[in-house]
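User: Modeling request: complex.
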Amino acid sequence: MSPREHTHPAVEDVELVAVLSALAEPTRLRIVRMLAAMEGERAWRDIDLPIARSTLSHHLKILRNAGLVQNRTEGTRCFVSLRGEELEDRFPGLLECVLACRDAGAADADGAECGL
Amino acid sequence: MSPREHTHPAVEDVELVAVLSALAEPTRLRIVRMLAAMEGERAWRDIDLPIARSTLSHHLKILRNAGLVQNRTEGTRCFVSLRGEELEDRFPGLLECVLACRDAGAADADGAECGL
DNA sequence: TTCGATATTCGATATTCGTCGAACATCGAA
DNA sequence: TTCGATGTTCGACGAATATCGAATATCGAA
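Assistant: Request completed. Predicted assembly structure:
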């Protein structure tokens, strides 16, 4: 289909288990890190990951349904951004401390490995 | 088998994705909440959940491998406890804000529903 | 209108996950 | 030693998930 309007769950309807599940997958965590590292939105088209576009669409849908991410449509293209403040309201500190952590296996938003 | 000694990962080897995966399952989250609500250890035998004992063993293994929980063996029985301080060292604030949240679907440690 | 770009959905596949009961291993007590 | 209690592992099952390529729907431009 096309970048049609999507529904986003209300903040109060966002569930913890859904958020944790969404974050508990390396590719999705990487997407979240990437979005967090840029203050603003990111063009769908410019999200460059070593996965098929349909797979990317799938992961973004899960992040969207979990309340982590929101889409904005502009013509035939769309932009993705983190629902940072809303998440902070719902689960204070959660996103922040997940992002703060950089373990050995945590790839950087750009794809490079990160020591600390 | 029996409550034999288990290996626990070193704090520095605990991975974020493993922790999030472990917490992203209702039964396991409930176990963690229960352990957090009691300051100390809990006898395996006394963990009362509506699942088979083998399933409980499975979930505890996942929590253990993720670094969230530790086992202590005493004779033929064992005791489970949260690795609270170590988790705090590794991922500051994470466990705390996960536990702080009580969403609509979050069952209490005792099994009762909890409004707030 | 026709076409190309864009993102989603569909169908298929392989894998992982949660669950159970049964079998097993270990320890302490009789 | 024999037994019972206690957890763990095994084998099996269905459900959920990650992945891909192909098909599809929508928009903007030619």
